[in-house]
Amino acid sequence: MGQMGGSALTVNWTVREILKWTRGYFKGAGISQPRLEAEILLAHVMNVDRLHLYLSPDTPLTPDERARFREIIKKRRSGVPRQYLTGEVQFYGLRFRIRDDVFIPRPETEELLERALGLVPRDRDLACLDLGTGSGVIAVSLAKYLPRVKVTAVDLSTEAVELAQENAELNEVVDRVDVMRSNWFERVVGKFDLVISNPPYIPEEEMENLPEEVRGHEPRRALAGGKEGMEEIAKLVAGLEEHMYAEATALFEIGDGQGKMVTEEMKSAGLIDIRVERDFAEQERYVIARCPL
Ligand SMILES: C[S@@+](CC[C@H](N)C(=O)[O-])C[C@H]1O[C@@H](n2cnc3c(N)ncnc32)[C@H](O)[C@@H]1O
Question: Does the annotation mark 199 as catalytic?
Answer without folding.
Answer: yes
